[in-house]
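Risk register update: the risk of archive-format incompatibility is retired. Evidence:
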Amino acid sequence: MRNDIMGVLFDNLTLAEAVDAGERLAAGPGFAYVVTPNPEIVNLARQREDYRQVLNGAGLVLPDGIGVIHAAKILGTPLQERVPGIDFASGLLTRLAQTGGRLFLLGAKPGVADQAADNLRKTYPGLTVCGTHHGYFQEDGPVVEAIRQAQADVVFVCLGAPKQEVWMAQHGPATGAHLMVGLGGVLDVYAGHVKRAPAAWQKLGLEWCYRLLHQPSRIGRMAKLPGFLVAAAGEKRKRGKP
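Archived output:
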């Protein structure tokens, strides 16, 4: 069952349920991709129907931002919990290390994916990182072929929105991978270049605040959140809900 949050259809799952679903998709015979929209991505999808279709065509649509959770409550279609992309990815990494699945890392500046791969191998003993590629490529074909040659089961695609979601939908099937996950800047975290908020901040839903304190340049993006919630209230009135 999916909940319609301003046109984007979110899976109403806990983190544990999402990881279970992701593992099933990764082990399946076909191809699927996972998207993790935050309010910024939902706003873009409201403006671009083609992008909204890409998001809604995903095998899993997970609520990454706390703003999405608040909007869902306002709309009267609450989601069970926030499912941060990096937490979903970490859960999936544990399963891959146990089952022998093959992971490919795509994105970030040259060298970042390689460092992330080294760190992940240490953190998840038994994990097979079968290949990496930076995100500053001009042609898609060689990247698709690199993933195919690596025989990847799962690909973490970290190209930033909306590029990563569109890229997965367009090129994923040709790679031979079973599952792709759009994860924004997660490779910088895994590489140790960006520090994630402490667990206490995460539990309080204040990870966005921690990032803002350490990256003041994000203030323009964060300032859009109140407008997003106002738009959710307007959407609720349109739907005729009390």
